[in-house]
Amino acid sequence: MRYDIKGKRYINTPSKYYFVDMGLRNARLSFRQQEYNHIMENVIYNELKLRGYSVDVGVIETSLKVDGTSKRKQLEVDFVANMGNRRYYIQCAYQMHDAQKRQQEQSSLLGINDAFKKIIIVGEEVLTGYNEQGILIASLFDFLLDPMKTFNW
Asked: Strand 136-139 to strand 117-122: parallel, antiparallel, or no bridges (unpaired)?
């Protein structure tokens, strides 16, 4: 389900679907759609569910100035993972090799004004650590193999 982060409510918009078995997904699609970012997002979703989190897709509405006029835009947060009183906002990016891509991935997280941890999981090998905005950048390998590194920093 989609969760309005600022309004703290669920909204009725088209849902996203994730496959439990990626092999069946690939067979169903005749191995045609091999989009690494979507596959990585699916793996992260399955891992979060396996770890016991309830997982939603987050939506955050922001105002942008374009040519002197204010426009509202909805940005998506790939996952809002909840377990008890813990919440994590997670973005997935297969690669983040330039400033424009980093800004794109961070923009939705920077619009969230609460103290819960914000994480960007990257498919390429990166040194896990916080950036200047307080967002944890973690490699997919660290997320999958060492949950303490990602969630308890």
From this structure: parallel
**Neighbouring C-beta atoms of residue 97, cutoff 10 Å:** 10
Residue 63 near residue 72 (C-beta atoms within 8 A): yes
pLDDT tens-digit series, residues 115-136: 999 999 998 887 788 999 999 9
146, 152 contact by CB (below 8 A): no
Instruction: In whole angstroms, give the CA distance from residue 18 to residue 30.
Output: 17
Task: Domain ranges for the chain, please list them.
Answer: 2-151
For residue 81, which amino acid is it?
A
Question: 3-state class of 69 per DSSP?
Answer: strand
Q: Which amino acid belongs to residue 63?
A: S
CATH architecture for segment(s) 2-151: 3-Layer(aba) Sandwich (3.40)
Instruction: Express each pLDDT in 29-46 by its tens digit.
Output: 676 666 777 788 889 999
